[in-house]
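Page 37, top half.
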Amino acid sequence: MPPTGDDALGRADLHLHTLASDGLMSARDLVDYVEHRTDLDVIAITDHDETSASLEGREWAARHDYRVQVIPGVEVTTSDGHLLALFVEDRPPALRNARATAEWILRSGGVCIAPHPFTRWTHSLSQRAMQSLVMSGLLSGVEIFNASLAGRASRPQALRFAEQHGLAGIGASVPHMMSMVGLVGTRFAGRTLLDLGQVILTATTVAEGRFATPGEMAAEALPQLARSMVHLPLRRIVRYFAAHAAG
């Protein structure tokens, strides 16, 4: 008998961070955890301006013949705010405007998602920037359910924007440590990353889950803050000088 209801839908978590940026878990440990401790079919590893962990995670899952499939991706820092790129092998140049970045992503075969939009808690796309992406046909989805504090603040406006513009509603836990993985997810028809890609383009996803509790947020806040304030800036400085030295 074919599955019905929720059993017929796959489940994905599309915004995860690892030690390659400001997360607190390795790509391999993350994939192992998802395979053995969750019901997720698909994940997207989307480190800040870095695709190396997503490629490692994909290879690790394939090597072990895991159920879970890994979408290569990146959370790009644009001059207008963060932008998620899914299904990309390389990282686009950082600090360009959102439209130029989105055009690069689409040329590379990727899909653009607006993470935690409208919130002041983190570097997020504004209404104006998102409107520009929509009018240019560059934006496919909006993170309407994000387990973090930033996601809670932006949810009502994000929901309205996605509905008004016919964009896919994306759910993501945005974890930086293992215990937060899968708190929020994206349900979709099918089980594979190819199924998910098609469903995003037809805007037929469903976001579900729960917000992180204050205790859960506090547990990851201090160690994650240290990485985001020290590790990421240092890496960007090194890349900046390396790029200029090469030029």
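Page 37, bottom half:
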Amino acid sequence: MAVRTASMTLVQDAKQGDQVAFMSLLEPLLGPAYRLACGMLHDHQAAEDVVQEASFKAWRKLGQLREGHEARPWFLGIVANECRTVRRSRWWSVLKWPESEHAVETSRDSDLSGIELRRALRRIDIDKRLVLVLHWYLDLPLDEISRITGSSIHAVESRLQRGMNELRRRMEARDAN
């Protein structure tokens, strides 16, 4: 007889309607989910809203979490999809301040470099940004990123490489100005 892990027991109990089990399952995932949403949206309030909405959707879609699969890639996939939905919505483009194309004064100060890095990251295609955020912000392995994005490991590696190249080009262009 196979040994059931605590996580599998929590999933099973949550699927049977146990709210405490669901919260126990979800609680350790909320921090990484919030960091993912912040990395994707660059807006703390919107990130909080996304994690809240993703949590609600996770509760409703708990039956889709398959036996033997980890909850983290499943939940972070829901968060990533919610971020995409928010970015596609009309209110996002109407209410967000347009990004300034003017470069911040060149400085070696780490704060300014961080600001410029976030600006460059914001300009990268959402699919590449998702892989970069999952890999570099959340320090997730490629196989887990593959499960979160629903892509092959090869596709994840390719997006990661293209994203890094694009980010590098944008940062070098900033340094040249």
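Margin note: Residues 153-176 form the longest helix (24 residues).
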